[in-house]
Queue: 4 jobs
Job 1
Amino acid sequence: MQQSNDRLLRCLVDGGVDFVIVGGIAAIAHGALRTTLDLDIVAAFNRDNMDRLLRALRDLHPRNATRPDLGELQATAEELARYRNLYLVTDSGELDVLGELPPVGGYAEAAAGAVHVELFGKRCAVLGLDHLIAIKEFLGRPKDQEALRELRAIRERLK
Amino acid sequence: MSAPIDRREVFRTAWPSYGPAWDAAVEAGVDMLQLERNLRLTPGERVAQHQDALEFAEMLRASMRDAAVQR
């Protein structure tokens, strides 16, 4: 299975899902060099948005990333709205749907600081550089330290 | 004498110091040439470039699998 972030993003945008791109793809959008495979988004975990998410991904046959053997995701939008995060594997690759993004907050806070850019012909919200740096500082893992060096240099370069 | 792969000296002389975070990235071995090149692209071009790299890597993996089968 090949990771097709272009197809995933088109499905999400066309499906009207409220989301902000975070993680490695957001870092790449800001100019970072680190490579990543999967697409991470923070989304509003409410019934309407989860309903749009399920419809948007239906043709991509979403499965639970940790238990793909269980087959296609069977949870309803009401059930998903009670989740904190959702880790999916689809026919177009992996998609992590996060409900919380410490220390930034949830979808509303991420969206408030997001930048809107054109990706694969679709207007997408991408987590702002300051928020991205704040998250990496909060996580503090070795791989985050490496990413932080690039992101801080980019912020300084763009001042 | 530094190894040719270590381009820190090149980066130090090619660009001014934009500040401590820039200097720390140079010292950590971040490829500032690629970073500068990336910053000249739009966000959309950067993400599309990443998708191209993923597809190239997948093609490479498939070729290696095919080569292993033929051996």
Note: The helical segments of chain B are 8-14, 20-27, 32-39, 43-70.
Job 2
Amino acid sequence: MRVSATGWIAVAGIALAVVPFLRPPAFYESFLYLVFYWIVLATSWNILSGYSGYFSFGHGAFFGAGLYTTATLAGALDVPFLWTLPAAAAVAALLGLGVGAVVFRVGRLRGELFALITLAVTFIAANVVLNTRIDGGQGVNLGGVPLPKLMSSPSSTFYILALGLAIAAVWIARAIHDAKLGRGLFAIHDDEDVAEVMGVPTFRYKMAALGVSCALAGVAGGIHAMFISYVTVGETFSILVPLTVVLMSVFGGTRHWLGPAIGAAAITGLVYAFTAGDYAIAGRAAVGVVLIAVILFMPDGILGRFASPKKRSGARASTAYPAPPPRRAQQAGTLLEVEGLSKSFKGLQALDAVDLEVERGEILGLVGPNGSGKSTLINLVSGHYRSDSGSMSFEGRDLALLEAHRIARSGIARTYQIPRPFAHLSVLENVALPAMFGRDNLDRAGAEHEARHWLEFTGLAGRAEDVPDALNLHQRKFLELARALASRPKLLLLDEVLSGLTPSEIDGTIRTIRAIRDQGATIVFVEHVMRAVMELTDRIVVLNNGRVIAEGSPAEVMRRPEVVGAYLGKAHA
Amino acid sequence: MPSLTLLGQSLLSGIFIGALYGLLGLGLSLTWGLLRQINLAHFALAFLGAYLTYQLASAGWDPIATLALVLPCFFAFGAMTHWLFARFSVSPFNSLLVSFGLTVIVESIIQGIWTADSRRLDSAYAAIRYKIGALYVPFPELLTLVLAVALCMGVWAGLRYTELGRAMRAVAEDAPIAAAFGVNERALSLLLSGLSAAFAGVAGLCLALSFTLAPSQIYSWIGVVFAAVMIGGLGNPVGPLIAGIAIGASEAITMALTAPTWAPLVSFSLLIAVLLARAKKI
């Protein structure tokens, strides 16, 4: 299936390339040119926005940057038209990367905020072009620029150029969709923080997607400049460009690589069918009605149903996957060394100069009352938060300076107390993701094979194709566990995996964790269920108000008066 | 450097146009912030209102009196839109697309009835001007400012001090929980949606009194009004007015000092700066 998709794209490309040789009326070629042109714009938009969920309204700016690059180079500087296209791609990509370098670095600029910033960039770009010599307010006339004779007629030339670009865009969208980049972008779409903690280099991935997206839009702009031959700011940077592109992608389905192309073809055809005749105005209204109907009745787009895992429940017969291979024997010594670690949230001292050592191969219990700083410690070690001061050394590397995805790659994995699965990925894809981005850097097939081991291990093999929403809490907790294990971490941070489970589920989970330990993993185990702590841990550290108040063997430490006091309150004499 | 009078006059007109930004932003901000619906059709509705005012005034009505007909119709239209969104539980982003479809439909209707040519309302109000010191204050623009301030403050007070307003804010915070506490979430949402659409009707009156109307003009207001709403705060009735006036004033000053065409640069740079600063805080 995967191989044949490339085949189908090639077949479609060749079949369509034959069209000009049949000498159709120029009108049909021009119509199909417009279809291809919108396919490029919609597909390129989708590579960033559909995949990663960063909805951009700036596509007009990136398209316009390419358009005016060609207009300026070919119109004013007499550069041959075809040579201006790489420049158009480069200028558009640079504009996009410039915006991304600022916007992606700043806080949580998602959703509507990202859409608006990119829209504002469009208006600013329009204003600069309008007021400088690039346009100057009169528009640029490219009527005198010679068009290379690639084909017998100008309309055939534009047809072939746009077709080539459309095929390239769809092929790139598919390649990204199936590659690691695509997996990472889909994870960013669902939960960017978790993606980063599981090893996805989120900033780099977003920049890559934005760069590709803008470059394609830029080339489309460059070709379109010649096609319309008279370019104006009002037409180019209009809000209708991003709106149309978004609409086409949503119409076709943003989670499928072919969705935007289908949407673009459908809407271009629809607009033509309704507005070409004598009733253009009524036709426009009809287009509006169709759009509303499609969004209301198919919110995930035409291809939506093919792009997401089925919401199905019930177990399936599972093929046996061999038990995970034993881990490399761990040498003795310190794996993680934390010194003087502090973190405060708006004046609340969550951690106060904490010292802690984790020995290779041990299960270290981390206990303490609610709010004592256990989860904060895990969040700092996994890179979810940055520490205020202190050092964390993992196998001699300082973690405090590493980005979260690098921490994951150096061999640390964690679970979340409240499960945070990627909602639109199947259970299998959820578990494969950390295997792909973890220490071993597996390819997609290898990661899925690895993921099946861990689904088997955690008893989720029958649910591999389900969406996480179909799982109950117990299974979601195990999904967290399987995700953490799939990266084959050297250090596993378990944040209250037992909370909310029934006593019999707790027994099962304890057996599972013991099995993990028997394979030689090093585990930091944050837990309130004391029975489990006593049964599983080799050593415990007790935190209270962000400080370590006791450390030692579980049985001995839990009897100390200061520990009892922290949990139950002090007896007032 | 232009004279002080000229600068003052353009500042004043900037404030007046800013008031219209705020007035257009009011309904947008309320449905966006409180109902999580990004209603692009708000702009089309305002223009439909403007055209209706134009039509009725041409037939001899007093322009301001046309509100008596326009507002109830728009209220019903707004409530209907909300019913549609609620019935299909449209996500915030898809609401943008659905309302874009509505915009296209309304634009086609306007174009079908009044053609794509521009129309200008001739009313007695346009000629009325007050002179304050060296500055002239045209009546239509003053009316816009008064209406904008009155409506924004009124909504603000209503949300803050009335039982209905408190219930509305509870619905915005968490609709199912509010419903569990006995708030009639559906009726309130319909009411708010209807009111927002009615505000578009008021904005339409102001548009008709001060501007030349053309169907394509619908899209030219979207960017800057979105900017005012984002800077002023979603769901906040007064913020967009203040932000709108700030944008209008800074645009007017830019126009007076440089070329008129540079004006949008100010508002959108301002928008980006505010968004970046706000995102950094989170």
Note: Residues 25 and 229 of chain B are 6 Å apart (CA to CA).
Job 3
Amino acid sequence: MATVRLSFSPAPVHVRTARLVGVAVARRAGVAEELLDEVRLAIGEACTRAVALHRQYGLSDLVLVQMSDSDSYMVSVIDRAPIEASVGLAKLPPDELADESLTDEALTTGVGFALLAGFVDDLQVRPVEDGAGTEVRMVWPVSRPQKQR
Amino acid sequence: MELSLATRIIAGHTVLEVGGEVDVYTAPRLRERLVELVDGGARHVVVDLGRVDFLDSTGLGVLVGALKRLRAANGSFGLVCSKEPLLKIFRITALDQVFPIFPSVENATSVTDDRDGGGSAA
């Protein structure tokens, strides 16, 4: 099993780096080429969410991204924000998306979750095992070349 | 790829051509430009996403913000997008039901009043 770990300070500028690394590892792991755009978007959304939470709570802790490619390509994005921050993640109905009362922050959060849920078939959002924080775990299938006879 | 922004006027519409990546880092620049345009008097704004190769939820939030701002000013707001990966993002978030989305700048700028979403999905 090959594992790549990346941790970055919660600044928007680093999210692009996480996307680039995540897609590079996905490609090497054997994720189908047609899924790579979705991998890029999903990793970006998960990291954007983590950065937003750290900034919201004034946390300077690093955001952790773990990528592994055992039987499938698994990416975990781990934040250190209080767990209640994850409550209320839900897809917004169309008639509420452009509602005047909806804040930009709530809109972006709702849309971000819709993208994660829409692009990742195997998605889990769960508390981290030690201390505060949430893990967003995403899994994609990999295909490897047949072994030579 | 870095964000690029270029503005031109076509048939009474202010067309903002966006290129590169629109994400949590670059979206504030897009927001600033759209606010500048509306504050400067633009009332019929079209954002051309033809050269965008990445768009995330933050970018979508900025576009919704511009839509709301123009609605409040009795203006119109439309998007030009024909790339399937981007169109899929609009479908998944249901924002294809919120924005008028046109396949070309010509289509978008030929609409004189699309305030109520008179555009057709690309």
Note: The two ends of chain B are 25 Å apart (CA to CA).
Job 4
Amino acid sequence: MSEHYSGTHGLQHEEPLVFERAHEESVSIHLPGVEGDLPDDLTSFARREAAGIPGLSEPETVRHFVRLSQWNHGIETGFYPLGSCTMKYNPRVNETLARLPGLAQLHPDQPEHTVQGILALLYELQEWLGEIAGLPHVTLQPAAGAHGELTGLMLIRAALAAKGEGYRTKVLVPDSAHGTNPASASLCGMETVELKSGDDGRMDIDVLKAHLDDDVAALMLTNPNTAGMFESDIVEICRLVHEAGGFVYGDGANLNALVGIAKAGDMGIDCLHINVHKTFSTPHGGGGPGGGPVVVNETLAPYLPVPRIEKGDDGYRLLHDDDQSIGPVLGSIGQSGVLLRAAAYIAAFGREHLHKIAEDAVLNANYVLARLKDAYHVPFPGLCKHECLLTDEIQNRHGIKTLDIAKRLIDLGFHPMTVYFPLIVHGAMLIEPTETESKETLDAFCEAMLEIAAASEAGDTEDMHAAPLLPIRSRLDETGAARKPILVWTEEES
Amino acid sequence: MRFLPHTERDRSRMLETIGVSGMRDLFADIPADLHIEPGSLDMPDALHEAGIIRKFTQAAEQNRHAGNTRCFLGGGTYHHFVPAVVDYVIGRGEFLTAYTPYQPEISQGTLQALFEFQTMIARLLGMEVCNASMYDAATSVAEAALMARRVTRRERVVLAGSVNPRYRTVTHNYLSRISGSSVDVPCSGFATDVDAVVEAIDGETACVIVQYPDFYGSVYDLASVRAACDAAGALMVVAFSDATAFALIEAPGSLGADICVGSGQALGIPMGYGGPQLGLFACKKKHVRQMPGRVCGMTHDARDRRGFVLTLSTREQHIRREKATSNICSNQGLMCTAAAAYMSLMGDAGLATVARRSAAALSRLVSGLPDHVRAASGPRFNETVLSFADGDSRDHFLAGAEGCDIFAGIPLERIDPKAEACHLLVATTEMIEAEDIADYHAALEAVR
């Protein structure tokens, strides 16, 4: 690379850190507001040294961030088959809607008669989520899935305490669960007991029975589970947990397989969080913001967080106080901007099309599975739901691991699948295509996977160990990064 | 359905490849009595795009918003100016529609933006390190309390009563299900009672949490709190609501904060009726392995070129499960990118202007108050409490001001249920012009 020119690969640009681009002093920006002398009692607290925030001109700022954006892969750029993440197309109109000044420019403490429009939209979303899950009582407050889990467990603890069974603090979590499940249980002051999955990747009823006792507060269950399999014994599982005096918490991360097909409430699940950034297509934003509304049955409803949106004769209002409530879990009523996008996604499908989300999502996952099942090891054969699980068992014989396959996919033009999760199989590759991908895209992805399998079989593996070769960066030294963390930039680091 | 690319022909060819005869066969593993009739949900019919736009536009038009009013509301959320470039940057599909950057080679854009964000936030707060964000200020404060307990291996948490009541409630909520205690120290005169806070720190205390400027906008000296923490071996956690303050007043890090947490909403994020917000979390480097949440680190690739990765993940739930420092998984990544773009554009000078004008507007507002309204005494940044003779006169004024397109303040008891119903929490930003303040004064005169 030349020191003077940034173009290195066609017009793929290197881009320095914003601090390296900065001028000696900030470019001036023309701002509104009033000037005036500040009171002496305030100026005595004045900051002595400037922070060192760059201050680029507008054209420089745009170019900097646009170049950075070009180093990213997004769902708009291409296929993003991350299992358990539900990376689907994010409708552009939802971006426009969430930015309407009458929705985006609202202060959360405006008088309620000035925000009736947004309260109506959010209230309606609550009703829709409750109907889709068959669990009619809803809080929109949790800011993400893990936050929803914590909220749900708080509700369960409150309901148990009200029954005089506060001593129940054991949470049963299958070994296939997301890491957030046990972490949420700990945060809620509960102990996790891990349940070993059966040989078919599903819950082993005998293992469950062996752990059901008077200490059990809840079973946390993802259905379909993280191997992409529906827990066919779900009704029996819920019955057993209820009989033992516990609650069933549903991790709704995989709701995409069930929308409009079956309801969690009908299965016997008491409480479910819904990742609106998965099932209802709010953009993932490079890690967030998300949204994790929680839907519950009658038993848990009295304990839902405040503030709550209530509908009365004279419109909507926020209920701030309720003695039975667990209280707030966030500083606001929820991530409204995210929730509005979810409402728009649901509205676009409506009553007559919502089930098609699950149908096409499950069709796509099974299609990929059908095309790849001879070339890759399938640990749990049979139909999958919205995602399919493969392993590197066959390729491993040729020294090719899941990580190599994932990185090679990048060179072939695809974002990798989720790797090494779930933990119940060795070298997991979890593929979730979602409903918004075309057959052409799925075929191209399958061809790439088959090409990798064939190359591995042929011993043509050199490219794979070094992959990816084509992106702006090759494999990064993650071990070094963790050993000697550099989390902020200093002039010496340049 | 416009988001679903398959034709019916595609579907039947795919079903054939799978080896099943119909779509319903794909769901054969779901017991028959759990199946619901397609199209039987109790919901409205599908709307086309034009219909959705109409629905949302009509709803939006029912609301009054900061764009066509004068907004003197704060309490943790502030109406600052957001340059168009910020929204453009986060609207880029490559940032907007990316996942958490687990595959760093194809996520360098998000990662470098996060690294720049971490650096700028650390500098603004005067702290050594910063994570890649939490949900909001309230949950950041709660996580700070939990982190302090891990660092000190103590279980008692002291909160100044002048910390935003919402942050305190969420924190107590997080702490109430685990062993240990959390106590609020009462405050007086809409300011922090530093002596009482110092008094409450003992040898069992994991941390003391203060807010600076506090919930009532008061700015005060933290030296005695720092000294008391040193003497007791407790951590000092400093919370804040409006991050632009630290372009004007001394940063929490310089005042000795061990952990600094608060809201980054003021840095280029619209108020959004409560979210998406941006929780900021910074700490001293020596405590970094007890920090919750995602964090981005600088490293190099196989060809020795600088690059960035998510790091220290052995703290996190996907590795450590029940032993993780937090259950947090999603952060507010896109809001970090917004804040990074905002700060890049503003720079020290722009941020200082924002902070100075926010404070100047408050100063002008307070100095022109008629004598039937009293402002809290002592130094304030951009927020204060106005007190009226009684609730009726306050509410009468609020209604009158609203008639003049002014949201004049938040009834204090709305956020702080213990407060008497005659106070108003009032905030100003650079979006408040001289004319707005004159109209505010006129509205007060009108109800004298």
Note: The first strand of chain A starts at residue 7 and ends at 9.
